[in-house]
Amino acid sequence: MKTFLLGFVAAFVLIPAGVLGYCRLGLAGTGSDANPSAWETLVMQSAVRASVRRSAKGIQFRTPGNVDDAMVEGARLYLNGCAGCHGTPGKPSEDLSSYPRVPQLPQVGTRYSEPEIHWIVQHGIRNTAMSAYGPFYSDKEMWALATFLKRIDNLPPGMMDSIQTKSAVGSSKN
Amino acid sequence: MKRFVIGLLTGGLVLALCVLGYLRLGLADVAVDAPTPAWATRWMFSSVHASIRRTTPRDLKSPLPASDENLIAGGKLYLNDCVGCHGAPGKPPSTFGATFNPPAPQLARDGTTYSEAEIYWVAKHGIRRTGMSAQGPYYSDQKLWLLAGFISRITTLPPEVRAGIEEKTGH
Q1: Contact A13/B at CB under 8 A
Q2: HSE value, Cβ hemisphere, 13 Å, CA-based, for B97
Q3: What's the structural domain count of chain A?
Q4: Is the pLDDT of residue A98 over 70?
Q5: ipTM of the shown complex
Q6: Domain range holding B87?
Q7: A4 in contact with B at a CB cutoff of 8 Å?
Q8: N or C: lower Cβ tally within 10 Å for chain B?
Q9: Could you say which of A4, A36, A125 has the minimum Cβ distance to residue B30?
Q10: What is the extent of the structural domain holding A167?
Q11: CB of A59 within 8 Å of any CB in chain B?
């Protein structure tokens, strides 16, 4: 029994020391152009999902006054601030340079709820390329984005056409 | 000895389950703006440093001379694509770069301890689990070397080079 306990305790010392040593020797890969392993993706995605669920629990979805208006505003914000990494609706793309890979939202959509999307936009996700946008967007803008993102893989037909022309007009005015 | 090994394996299993459980319960805060423990930052930085030192080929050297012309060309690339996160020479640090975790290093203000070859390597391949994506798919080797030459001297640029960069980028 005593030898068993000794081994048990030794595991709690040896494993962290091993991990630390492995990293210190530079054996952990750094290039973000490699593909994340399946187990890392699985563990990390579920950790992020659980953490976001927990953090966003108390947030109430503030229904925008008019969903159609919120969709249009959200779509415009998305095209200006998010599409560069997350992809433009109707244009297939693939992220090859960030690790973990950036989800291509127009294709894969999202399983997060509106309050969870709002939380992610505001606070970002650490150890990924997703930065926090709280300092740059108003609360109303983040709800508009959340409203749009929730439906991004299932948009009403023709919606993006009208947005793209509108935002083109908007940007030529600037 | 046999019992020790069984204890070791059991301990390892329990440790792994604790870590997985912690993650599965959502107890690891993923917010960029939540405080990061100092040990975690130090651990990550030293791992990245050691890994880059190890993976950058020893005999890798810039094929380009560090002429003013090349530095200006590198500076222009930097002002186009890197300043957004890493800060512009002579300007306040980037607020956007600070919204990542780990935050983007403010190269224009702080410089870098990486060598020219290592900077080339980082720009080309990126750094995992940070906002630094691999630029290899988008930049030619020539451009990456121009950038590396510029960044490795970013805090000690000759005045002519600084003037040259700023002159020509103002559209």
Answers
A1: no
A2: 18
A3: 1
A4: yes
A5: 0.90
A6: 57-169
A7: yes
A8: C
A9: A125
A10: 67-174
A11: no
